[in-house]
Design a protein that fits this description.
- The chain is built from seven helices and 17 strands.
- Strands 1, 2, 3, 4, 5, 6 and 17 form a seven-stranded mixed sheet that branches. A five-stranded parallel sheet has the order 8-15-9-10-11. Strands 12-13-14 form a three-stranded antiparallel sheet.
- The chain is about 25% helix and about 25% strand.
- The mean pLDDT is about 95.
């Protein structure tokens, strides 16, 4: 027997969708994968999620929403989805060694920040290394920050963080940015932002948290060490959409293309969170889009039930 709804992804978007779908009595099945929780699982303190004036750890937010979804009847499968078929009905989703069928689906597989590939980067993730300027920038009030990147996102993050930090040093491997001219000018004119050209972060050092970075000049191979309180990686995001290539429309950056925010071109397949959002990328906006997807799902399943009764 087919499930009413399968939700692929167990971050704030998928879990929020599950809360709403479960309360409607759809008993959703969440296939959360081997790394559930999304980007929140590597976020230590979240101060901008509504309802937590003192701040809250990212994993705790995930745990609370998950418990809420379970309370209303959501079920979970801890497997990675290996294949989907939205070309026939019911839809088919393969995870592990099982094939699941569903009348409707919500895709909430999120996006991962591109990383530098350093062992030390992983060691300090959430302890001075961050991938989200708008999320963690306020945590660096009166502190020094280093930021890696050269695109519009890097410029935006640098300008935002500079509102709080005493200084922001941008490290870029080339001698020019690829960001838009207006963003470059804002950064170059900012009194608290410095730029180090033709250089890369070679190693991140510290004890319980980040203390310094070792930089390498890509032209001379000379290395130097600079003290810093935090390192922000702003070299882009990669949406987790490999599963859906050839199955759903993707934009030029690989994000799922939506209609009316959460619908796809296939009726009954909905989208929520960062897998389609390359602008906001916040836990709260992901959660909100999960709610929207669940409400659209309700309308769709209600319409299908009405047609079956006719």
């Amino acid at each position: 027997m087919a499930e009413k709804v399968i939700i692929i992804g167990g971050g704030p978007a998928g879990l929020s969708a599950a809360v709403y779908a479960a309360r409607e009595g759809f008993s959703p099945l969440v296939i959360e994968g081997f790394n559930p929780g999304g980007q929140l699982m590597i976020t230590t303190v979240v101060e901008n999620f509504p309802g937590f004036p003192e701040g809250i750890d990212g994993p705790e937010i995930v745990g609370r929403i998950r418990k809420q979804a379970e309370r209303f009847g959501t079920r979970f499968v801890n497997e990675n989805v290996s294949s989907v078929d939205f070309g026939s009905r019911p839809f088919r989703v393969i995870a592990g060694d099982k094939t699941y069928e569903a009348d409707a689906a919500i895709i909430a597989t999120g996006a991962n920040a591109k990383m530098l590939g350093l062992e030390s980067e992983q060691k300090f993730l959430g302890r001075g290394v961050s991938t989200c300027g708008t999320c963690d920038g306020p945590l660096y009030k009166n502190k020094t920050v280093m930021l890696v990147g050269g695109g519009d996102t890097a410029m935006e993050d640098a300008l935002f963080i500079a509102q709080f930090a005493t200084s922001v040093t941008i490290v870029h491997r080339r001698d020019s940015f690829k960001a838009s001219k207006i963003m470059q000018e804002r950064v170059k004119c900012h009194p608290k932002i410095k730029i180090i050209w033709n250089s890369v972060v070679d190693e991140i050092k510290g004890d319980a948290k980040v203390r310094s970075v070792r930089l390498k000049n890509v032209q001379t191979n000379e290395t130097s060490e600079m003290p810093t309180d935090g390192v922000f990686i702003a070299i882009g995001y990669k949406p987790n959409t490999e599963l859906f290539e050839g199955k759903l429309k993707l934009d030029s950056m690989g994000y799922l293309v939506t209609i009316d925010e959460v619908k796809t071109e296939i009726e009954g397949v909905f989208v929520a969170g960062d897998v389609a959002d390359h602008f906001y990328r916040q836990a709260a906006t992901a959660s909100g889009s999960g709610v929207k997807a669940a409400l659209q799902l309700r309308e769709y399943l209600s319409m299908m039930a009405y047609k079956e009764r006719e």
